[in-house]
Amino acid sequence: MRNRTETASGLLAAVALVAGMAASGLAGQVDSKWGIHDVNRPRPPIITPGTASTQDQPGRPPSDAIVLFDGKDLSQWQTPKGEPAKWKVEDGYFEVVAGSGDIQTRQAFGDCQLHVEWAAPDPPRGKDQDRGNSGVYLMGLYEVQVLDSYNNETYADGQAAAVYGQYPPLVNAVRPPGQWQTHDIIFHGPRFAADGQLLRRARVTVVHNGVLVQDNVELSGPTAHKQRPPYRAHREKLPLLLQDHSHPVRYRNIWIRELGAASQ
Questions:
Q1: What pTM was estimated for this model as a whole?
Q2: What pLDDT score does 261 carry?
Q3: Which of 1, 124, 185, 239 is the most buried (most CB within 10 A)?
Q4: Is residue 85 within 8 Å of 68, Cβ to Cβ?
């Protein structure tokens, strides 16, 4: 029953992602240069879809995804200073090493579909924000929270799958500590004019464990603790960052698909 349940969750995640994008108006817009059902209109590229993960086995990424962790090494990651990542790799996952610092991708990304699997420490220790805490920072600035929110009271905009300090998740869909959780994220970064003026705010959709928890929300700016920093002009692509919050959170099966102009 476990594998069937988790496969169903993967299918729900895919459906929710598509629904969220469609509702947002970011999934694509009608191109007026093509007539309805024009046989000359270019067909979408063909890819091989991925497979759902189970608790025992990570799924396979889509064929056009960039794999950021394949279960073997941290060659795609480094410290913000450009040094080799110092987190621990074991048995198909990697784990935060407390005090070693955040890690970020060597490659920069902007608008994207991101898949991250994580597990909070078991047995759990601590409470509130001091329990299984980490974070996924899109462009190193916009955090989707990683936290053990299972039977753990904390502020709403800081629990698992929150856009930290801005949007609580619509529901708490967290699994018990030790179990693998999924964040499936659709992100559209901000846009700035040449003079630094904000043209478009960042938006994010999050599906946590197959449940839509952030529905195309518009970010007020970078996320921060007890602050609401304003936007400041930056490049359209920046590294993805994972946070060292001194808790041995584990990660596996991380992949990303860059979204081009057609998805904007």
A1: 0.88
A2: 57
A3: 185
A4: no
